[in-house]
Amino acid sequence: xxxxxxxxxxxxxxxxxxxxxxxxxxxxxxxxxxxxxxxxxxxxxxxxxxxxxxxxxxxxxxxxxxxxxxxxxxxxxxxxxxxxxxxxxxxxxxxxxxxxxxxxxxxxxxxxxxxxxxxxxxxxxxxxxxxxxxxxxxxxxxxxxxxxxxxxxxxxxxxxxxxxxxxxxxxxxxxxxxxxxxxxxxxxxxxxxxxxxxxxxxxxxxxxxxxxxxxxxxxxxxxxx
Length: 225
Prior knowledge:
Blueprint: H1 6-34, E1 46-47, H2 50-58, E2 65-67, E3 88-90, E4 111-113, E5 134-136, E6 157-159, E7 180-182, H3 190-199, E8 204-206
Parallel strand pairs: 1-2, 2-3, 3-4, 4-5, 5-6, 6-7, 7-8
């Protein structure tokens, strides 16, 4: 066999293998990033950019799910407001540090996922969205949970893993529909974890091992015994 003919054949196989592996990894990543939403319908159609989603809506499609992950966004695109039926919004692995005020006008939104971003403060606009059932903002730089977190009265899942939280308000106990509170990889004392366990006896609480750090007197939002 002519050895010169083997070179492009082997090269072609190598390229195809790389493309296949890359495709499998991207598919796996796509599946994983969309499975973070609790109770996500299996048949929901995802759109990966706003322009395509808006065009689909103009063509008569009902757009429920949008995935803007890994797009280096510093802000949510204003055309998002045009998606009047949007229910599930993924915006993970971007450069977001705030949400725009107009997000509160999207009253069909149920789940907002913004893991792996640059938030330092819990977005105030989310407190004006009582219809939200899931918020996930893991791997940011959030320093506290707002005292009025219970304004999001329909909240079922609050996922704030891997932040720098230093306050855990008693108003969490007013979230009567809360099912999951994920606080993994936040420095918490045993006292703080015990307080939350007592406050939320029916809620699935996810904690890391308690630290030996000083007890935070800022926990004053809990009623005194």
